[in-house]
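User: quick one
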Amino acid sequence: MIDVQSLTMRYGPAIALEDVSFQANPGEVLGLLGPNGAGKTTAMRILTTYLYPSSGTAKVNGFDILEDPMEVRKHIGYLPETIPLYGDMRVDEYLMFVGKARELEGSQLTERLTWVQNTCQLKPVWKHLLCELSKGYGQRVGLAQALIHDPKVLILDEPTSGLDPIQIIAIRSLVKSLAKEKTIVFSTHILQEVEALADRIVIINEGKLVAQGTKQELAEKVQVPGKTARDLSLEEIFIQLLAPSQGASV
Ligand SMILES: Nc1ncnc2c1ncn2[C@@H]1O[C@H](COP(=O)(O)OP(=O)(O)O)[C@@H](O)[C@H]1O
Ligand SMILES: [Mg+2]
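Assistant: Done. Structure below.
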């Protein structure tokens, strides 16, 4: 469970997030959708306690990001926009290193390593150096490090960015398979991505919350002449919702 309460983030005079609130529930995949610069990464870095908000707060599985940041970190698996992979480490060494940093040891660590190896389909590259990996495998290792401690909450920043269509399908189905038992928030600027993955959508633009809901709920907020809410594509909904601030030129 994630409960974001009135988050505001200023970088000097610039406002990256302004009074943004949203919730994500267990078993739910929440898509954080917005153009580049909307504030998605900033929101995720605050949720994962890497950044302190200027005001507002959030709770992750009941723990407050300001009061209990260490507890929050324990409950979260985070795939950042740029994964800090140490090029001269092997995949197995790196994941063992992350597992130990997550306080796993002995048979528990071995079990989790086997689980991420299977779940993220890393067998073919298990002994490879990280610097040798393709973008697709790099992303899978990124997911594996986010999953090693079996967190209840997954935060994925643009998980399919830069991947080819086959890799995108593989990552999507992996995320879907994890969804039942976790709360998952992912960000993207790609409409098809939210359409394919998200149960619920939070749209942000220029740091502000534009709308949130299921696709159907969002469709009911807009009007396109000659079309019913049911007929609207996500693209049409998105353009309509952003129209007041962007003149529909997304
Ligand atoms: N460390 C930073 N210092 C100053 N401005 C930043 C910093 N990080 C992000 N920003 C600005 O905050 C806004 C939101 O950025 P970001 O959260 O990265 O958006 P998104 O992930 O949606 O593309 C952008 O205008 C960006 O330039
Ligand atoms: Mg970003």
